[in-house]
Amino acid sequence: MTRILVTGFCDAVRNLCDALGGQPEIELVHAEAYQGANGDRPAIDANLLYAGGNGSLPYEDLVRVRELTSAPIVLLVERADPTLFEEALEADIADVVVLPESAERVAFTLRRASRAALHSAGLPEERPARMITVFSPKGGTGKTVISTSLATSIARNEGLRTLLVDFDLQFGDAAIMLGIEPEQTLHELVTAPGELDADKFGGYLTRHPHSGIDVLAAPLRPEDGETVTEEKVERVLDVARKAYDVIVVDTSPFFHGALLATLDRTNVLVVVCSPEIPTLKNVRLGVDTLRLISFPEERIRLCLNRADADGAMRKPQIEGALGMDVSFQLPNVPEVPAAVNRGTPLTLEAPTSPFSLAVRSMSRSLLGAARKWDPDSAEPQAERDDLIHTVRGFASGWRWSRDGKPAADRAGEAT
Q: Across the 415 residues of the chain, what is the mean pLDDT of every consecutive 10-residue run?
């Protein structure tokens, strides 16, 4: 739980505070009530300070806040004044948010400020595992195939202790694609009584015998996904990162609390795209949303799956349409669907196939070595420009709803 002290509460920020209070694992405390509390006051993780509408830094409120708590301060302002930004920097303000802004973005900023303060205070960052999160805002791109292939390839070829976590909370398929039947899942783990530690965590994992990876499977029933809160996701990942060299996280296509908590801990985010216009539209919106919540762009890697399929658009077209580089390309190999149906990743079944070699190159790049499979492809500039215009036209007519899906696109495909 992230506890936020609110100073300068007024009608101008009332709706924002109401919405913040509904965010997962956010607790708001008003400064007046906190200051007047008798006895021990609860620890504050971050401060939310409204600067008022006159464009100046509220120095009196700053003094009052710092008398109450040393937690970092996020400043709410109503206009982007360069002078105010300079004053905020000199006053050691952690971040400045210009209103209007969504509650999701403000909550993300507050959590980030809180964690940055803990790290700068010299508290141990016991997260040795490198975390690779695989995400796509569109179903049917092969996201789970890539997650399971990456995890098994890393374990088999690099000899690293590898955990695969399935955070597709309603319809996770990682266990099925690996041909395992877990007796315990994420649902049983987060609903078990008592504090979560490494020993307890290990009891809810399923070992994949052919690769040696451990799997934390998604809940078996869609309704059980409701028990997996953002706070519990944070605890699961913090415990897991102490026990493994690499964690691969498979996700759902939605910007929900579990994904946001995962992004906070992600070293590299692999955004999966397939070469069709509807997918490009969703990926463009997904990347825009990542930017809105201030996820570092240098951590994003775009993976083009089925890159050389007949009739598919090629790398130059897709890079132009999305405005970002394609980091990895995976070939369209007919053996992949057959391997999925057999419950054995192709990376294990046929380690020298073009797909398996591309995944191995990709995994080494994600772990630090830069080798990529790159099919020979080039498209005329006129075709590229037409595609850019088409995709941007699609994207401009869509918006993201609070549950993270495009508001007009509720019928997602199966992962």
A: 80 82 81 69 83 79 84 86 80 86 86 74 58 90 92 89 91 90 90 83 89 91 84 89 92 85 91 89 91 90 87 82 89 88 90 92 79 39 40 41 38 40
- Alpha helix stretches (DSSP H) within 56-185: 59-68, 82-90, 103-120, 143-153, 174-177
Note the pTM of the prediction, 2 decimals.
0.61
Dihedral Cα 344, 346, 348, 350, nearest 10 deg: 130
How many Å is the Cα radius of gyration of the chain? 23
Here the tokens at position 122 are 């010299």
Three-state DSSP at 74 gives: strand
Token pair 């007009």 is found at 408
Neighbours of 71 (CB within 10 A): 21
Residue type, 343: G
42 upstream amide cis, omega within 30 of 0: no
> What angle do helix axes 103-120 and 257-265 make, rounded to 10 degrees?
30
If phi over 0 gives left and psi between -120 and 50 gives alpha, with beta otherwise, what is residue 311? left
Distance separating alpha carbons of residues 84 and 106, to the nearest angstrom: 19
> What is the pLDDT, as a whole number, of residue 389?
42
- The whole-number pLDDT of residue 205 equals 92
The strand pair at 300-304 and 26-30 is best described as unpaired
Burial class (CB in 10 A: 0-12, 13-18, 19+), 170: middle
All structural domains of the chain: 2-120 (3.40.50.2300), 130-167+244-396 (3.40.50.300)
Helix (H/G/I), strand (E/B), else coil: 87: helix
Sheet (strand 326-329) strand order: 206-207, 214-216, 162-167, 246-251, 130-135, 268-273, 300-304, 326-329
Q: Regarding beta strands 246-251 and 162-167, do their DSSP bridges make them parallel or antiparallel, or are they unpaired?
A: parallel
